[in-house]
Amino acid sequence: MSDILAVQLGSLRLANPIITASGTFGYGVEYADFMDVSRLGGISVKGISLEPRVGNPPPRVCETPGGMLNSIGLANIGYDAFVDRTMPVLRQMGATVIVNIYGTSHDEFAQLARRFDTVEGVAALEVNISCPNVKEGGIHFGVSGKSASGVTRAVREVTSLPVIVKLSPEALDLPDIGKAVQDAGADAISMINTFRGMSIDVETRKPRLGAVMGGLSGPAIRPLAVRMVYQVYQAVNIPIIGMGGIACLRDVLEFFLAGASAVQVGTANFTDPTIAVKIVDELEEYCVARGIRPADLVGKVEVGEAK
Amino acid sequence: MDYFKTRITRMEIPARDHAILRFSGDRPVDGEPGQFVMVRGNWGAHPILPRAFSLVEVGKEGAILVRNVGEGTNLLASMEQGDELLVLGPLGRGFSLPSETGGGVALVAGGVGVAPLVFLAQRLADKGIKPVFLYGARTGDDLPLRDQIGGICDLTITTEDGSVGEKGLVTAPLERFLQTNPTASVFSCGPEAMLEAVARVSVEAGARCQVALESPMACGMGTCKGCAILDAAGEYRYVCTDGPAFESVEIFGREP
Fold it and tell me: What is the pLDDT of residues B225-234, one digit of tens each?
């Protein structure tokens, strides 16, 4: 593959701008039987905490119009198992690994960042201050500029890895949060995480998720995400990694035009586990045919003058 | 595990609100009894998630049994010969086949849970083993695949309304069978309440029982962590990778 798709996100260089979103592509190693995950711009792995987490009561997923709700609760194998067992496989596969980290305090985030700093093969950290499915940490860090900037700074101070901060759509003022994490030293912003939603079985009168509420993802949220990327792009100077219901090349281009420099593909990985690699091919064809690079499209929506 | 494109080769309506989909692609459909596939038609954006089905047949053609319960299954059940079906599989851990079957084998199905047990019955027949097959349903209209069972198993049907076979629950003939075959191997798939009852009477009799479970899931391959269930020890297990087939004591414990 030529380097026409290469993107620079602060100090992070990716061979292409298509990343699989955290929580929708496991640790990446599961897919080796039928696809070459080294062809992805990056894999944002399932959120890693210091200790393993078992997750929330079932049911944890349900389908909704144009999307799905999940209340997984950051079930994960924890730092040690990930570094000892999964990272060697990812290195061997040649994957570009973005480690999504989750902590319940500034100190836990800092500990994770410090420990990952020296792990071979980690391309960047994605700081999850936006999970709607955990009682502590998660979204609570992501809803105000002060707390978002505190976590970002705690991570920034202890790592030389590129730091991406993943924002919640439930923040009161997203451009304000974007500026706050930029000022605290983030290299890039990824946005957006899921919206809290709820679905009720009208026969049983019970919530369809064991945790009652969960995070809504999929095409249903795409216009909301595009709007938010567009707004934050006006407010910050650091690159944005856009996501929210991306399922095909058209959707990727839409996020570029709104202001994203790269994108993450999430729920669509469940529809077709090879979709992200297919989009890489389609994007390359698109760019080659037009003699352009992804960066040429970033923020280029033509809004025009108000009449 | 593989992800590949197939086409529908044959559609069959074996019972009201059910469909058997047969499909084939450029490679054989692989799998063991109790394993499953995630499938999706080429129907555009909605529904976005594939659906999980136990394999009924493997080989040049694969087969699944679909019960129409909602949008996704209705779309699958209305597919036609030649339509595209995308298949991810084989997935999960199937039944563990007993090395020794002197104590007898009972396959206990509830409704659409018959699917993996028909596959298992075929595998046992290939080994020269003829199990008893106890098949329970609500009514005589809810007995898909029954025609594929009689030749290779000793079939007993129970229906709750008594319209076909014995009136009552499938646990009644199971208890009778276990009185004379207390060390049998029991394999079961069906609604959870039925599985719990089958597990209880099997374990009480001293038989080994395996159950195949279902759960809503998004990925089918262990990455989304959506299909968690609580096991007898209070730990979460994942239906897609730890199962779908489990030893019944792992899930329901030993105590009645």
Answer: 999 999 999 9
Give the model confidence (pLDDT) of B76-133 as tens digits.
999 999 999 999 999 999 999 987 777 899 999 999 999 999 999 999 999 999 999 9
Q: How many helices (H) and strands (E) does chain A have?
A: 10, 16
3-state secondary structure of A226: helix
Task: Report if residue A198 sits inside a domain.
Answer: yes
User: In whole angstroms, what is the distance from residue A10 CA to residue A4 CA?
Assistant: 18
Write out pLDDT tens, residues A165-179: 999 999 989 999 999
Name the pairing type of β-strands A200-201 and A206-207. Answer: antiparallel
CB atoms B224 and A65 under 8 Å: no
Question: Cβ distance B165 to B159 under 8 Å?
Answer: yes
> CB distance from A207 to chain B under 8 Å?
no
Of chain A, the percentage scoring pLDDT greater than 70 comes to 98
Q: Answer yes or no: do B222 and A26 touch at CB < 8 A.
A: yes
Q: Would residue A1 count as lying in a domain?
A: no
- Find tokens 């451009």 and name the residue: A175
Residue A131: active-site member: yes
Contact A278, A35 (CB under 8 A): no
State the best of A20, A60, A70 to mutate against chain B, taking most chain B CBs within 10 Å. Answer: A60
Model confidence at B250, pLDDT cuts 50, 70, 90, reads very high
Q: Does A51 touch chain B (CB under 8 A)?
A: no
| Partner residue facing A70 (CB), from B47, B50, B226 | B226
Domains in chain B, ordered, with CATH? 2-91 (2.40.30.10), 105-252 (3.40.50.80)
Q: Taking all residues of chain B, what is their mean pLDDT, rounded to a whole number? A: 95
Residues pairing with A164 in the sheet: A126, A188
Residue A102 contacts B, CB cutoff 8 Å: no
Residue B71 C-alpha from the chain's centroid: 21
Question: CA–CA separation, A244 vs A194, rounded Å?
Answer: 8
Identity (one letter) of the amino acid at A55?
Answer: G
CATH (domain of A207): 3.20.20.70
Mean pLDDT of B149-158: 94
Q: Structural domain of residue A200, as residue ranges?
A: 7-297
